[in-house]
Amino acid sequence: MDHKRDEENGLDGNYNSVVETEHMKEKEKEKENQEEEEEMSVERIFEGKEVPSWREQLTVRAFVVSFVLSVLFTFIVMKLNLTTGIIPSLNVSAGLLGFFFVSVWTKFLDKFGLLKQPFTRQENTVIQTCVVASSGIAFSGGFGSYLFGMSQAIAKQSENAGGNEEYKNPAVAWMIGFLFVVSFLGLFSVVPLRKIMIVDFKLTYPSGTATAHLINSFPHSSRSKVGKYFSFSFLWGFFQWFFAAGDDCGFAGFPTFGLKAYKYKFFFDFSATYVGVGMICPHIVNISLLVGGILSWGVMRPLIETRKGDWYPADLPSSNIRGLQGYKIFIAIATILAVSHPLRIAPLLGAHLLLTMILVGHKFFLKDQIPTSFAIGGYIAIAAISMATLPHIFPQLKWYYILVIYLVAPTMAFCNAYGCGLTDWSLASTYGKLAIFSIGAWAGAAHGGVIAGLGACGVMMNIVSTASDLMQDFKTGYLTLASPRSMFVSQFIGTAMGCVISPCVFWLFYKAFDDLGQSGSEYPAPYALVYHNMAILGVEGISNLPKNCFTLCCVFFGAAILVNLVRDAVGRKRAQFIPIPMAMAIPFYLGPYFAIDMCVGSLILFIWQRINKAKAEAFGPAVASGLICGEGIWTLPGSILALAGIKQPICMKFLSRATNARVDKFLGA
Description:
- GO terms for molecular function: oligopeptide transmembrane transporter activity.
- By secondary structure, the chain is mainly alpha-helical.
- 68% of the residues lie in helices and 0% in strands.
- The chain contains 28 helices and no strands.
């Protein structure tokens, strides 16, 4: 998917480790040449060895393990979606756990002489591809963003003028149908470009490359690391459950830096999941999140609160879009949208045109090629089915809106896949936002522009997100000598799994937690409200914003563009020291508490690298995967307990001395 992805996906960028001294340009060029030679040596890792055919790589046990891991990872991604919206790249974790489960399986069978086919790197790659494709639907399906943003629960929070808000409540049937008609197009949109992007231009696709290196050199001791930290994380989640009987109860409400700081969401909430996420995300991402949290909740929010009664009515609750809520949501949106400004997108569009010209007459030479005619025919056929079907699911989304999206989507998919190959950042949600504003404005408020915009966002996001995921998988397959055809089939099957698993998992959350999507709840689904409000802004303009909010949005939009341009200009090595605006924007809405968790994870990894870099690089992904997956899978029994009406027995809450005295006095009375 994992995802990772921007914003929600999105912060799954993977950058080189920090260098202590600058090298001269000649040395930089020399290092780049060495890296190319290293990649070529990896490509030849199986030279002289028999590689299974593409059919032999697609085993029954691979898809059984893929299904189990898909359910696990979908719960993890769904939890992240509905809490903070930050989803790291799970490629490495999927490959690692796939290796763990199948190697245990094969070792068990081998003991009894029942093992007929050894476990290969190519089979491991198939598992990783299938799991990432399946769990990725939990992100691109919009369960924490555009799809849940259509619901009545979110629409009520938007404070839409007149109280006639548009909404479409979730239901398993239409969600599965929607995903099946929009999730496969991305698979066909960039297949003809795979050789150009991976072989000829040698785009790095950092997550895909890292996963391939991990698969090619799995240490057997990784198994014990995954199992140990998985168990610890699961038991820690179980232990915390007993103390969280009410709002602000439990370890997640521990005022680490004092009650005043806790009010502004500066605290460590003891989340093993986000400590693990912090170990996977690059240091600069975690630092950017913390800087954004300090800027927004430590500086901006207290200053805006002093303007209460002037900039916005004093009697408005903090959740009202015409009050504090409006500032934090739309400043975050403006900062995020700056990532897709024309100065950054234009070069990619130009590159697309250039590569399209180069592609004419070019023949693929890789084994098990996927015919271009098959890709084009598949895209056209699924697009036709989608245009006929989607207006029945969303009457506001007319067939000609969908046609326009499908005409421009391949270009957007290329741009996203190309940019992801360079930076490891998927901007799927950014392209989705462009669809919200363009289709929403075209439809207009009187003709269901909000639902039309959100539906269009879903169509666009699924195409561009799947395209970049597939190209990452092609890169992994290229470096492990897995067949492109087996990669495509695995991605196709994984996508089909995700179209069923993700809606069912979301439905479990939806029914288990009555306050799902409510600000301040355990699962606030922050981006659902962000997306709904973006759709309103697209059809109604800026009249809903509080005083000076638009000015602040412009300031932050301009500042984010400037910082992005500087990051692009100085090169990857120096950019490691410049905060990422998109990452900085996320705490504006959520607060900095999760950034503190992630920085703790980053600090653990940093210290580990200083003590023993080889072990940190070898076992860091295993430890992080165990921490993420253990607490993530606890969500399943936790949700079942909630559905069964079994409540936590203890509320552990922290009060000031004065408040505690009043409580004692009241209870004594």
